[in-house]
Design goal:
The chain has about 220 residues and is an alpha+beta fold. Helix content is about 60%, strand content about 10%. The protein has helices spanning about 1-25, 75-100, 110-145, 160-180, 205-224; strands at about 30-35, 40-45, 50-55, 60-65, 155-160.
């Protein structure tokens, strides 16, 4: 029962993490302009992995997709790939983990085999979380480097909310995968048939039993 509860909680954590990864991937707030207040007509400038947006003072938001993938910076292209791979791995891990849950009747009924399937799903969840953590941290490092670089003449940005969601998502995914891995218990190897089993017996115990029998015999004779 405890193992089943651990697996269900782990799967819920991992699925929550994958949902946050999806939200972070499609979000347009990976970086937000820190100089938006200097322009009267624009109150905020923010970018994501797929488009950049401008929020005007009237409340309207205008977004434009990036025209060409090859014109983007290398770290943006790599972050795109890492996030997409992470989502694919997360979907795959969800399917695998469901088959490995002890409370489900899908696939095999062997608990040891189900445990190995759950272990595989947990490892894939951990890998997906690590890929997301790499993408988000690299993107944040590039924003920080450009912000504090005095020679950088472009628009300086700050960390957006999507990065914090990505960090939380990677943590949830890694935790869920770790709990799934912890739910697997390796079966102890059985004793081989026909193998000789040595039973050690303390010689002092034989002496104690002989002494007790002797004392009992003497006591019975004295009573007679």
């Amino acid at each position: 029962m405890a193992r089943t509860s651990l697996q269900v909680c782990a799967l819920l954590l991992a699925i929550s993490g994958m949902t946050c990864i999806l939200v972070s991937t499609v979000s347009t707030r990976w970086r937000v302009s820190s100089t938006a207040g200097t322009i009267i007509t624009a109150t905020s400038i923010f970018e994501g992995l797929w488009m950049n947006c401008i929020a005007t003072s009237s409340g309207s938001v205008q977004c434009k997709r990036f025209s060409s993938m090859f014109s983007l910076a290398i770290h943006i292209q790599v972050c795109r790939a890492l996030m997409i791979i992470s989502l694919v791995l997360g979907l795959m891990s969800c399917i695998v983990s469901i088959f490995g849950l002890k409370c489900t009747k899908f696939g095999t009924s062997n608990e040891q085999t189900k445990g190995k399937i759950a272990l595989s799903g947990g490892l894939i969840f951990i890998l997906a979380g690590l890929l997301t953590l790499t993408a988000v941290s690299w993107y944040a490092a590039m924003i920080t480097a450009q912000f504090f670089d005095p020679l950088y003449l472009g628009t300086k940005y700050e960390l957006g909310s999507a990065l914090y969601i990505g960090w939380a998502a990677s943590l949830l995914s890694i935790l869920g995968g770790s709990f799934l891995c912890c739910s697997f218990k390796k079966k102890k190897p059985a004793t081989k048939a026909g193998a000789y089993k040595y039973n050690y017996q303390d010689p002092d115990s034989d002496f104690k039993q002989f002494k007790e029998r002797k004392e009992t015999s003497v006591a019975s004779k004295a009573y007679v």
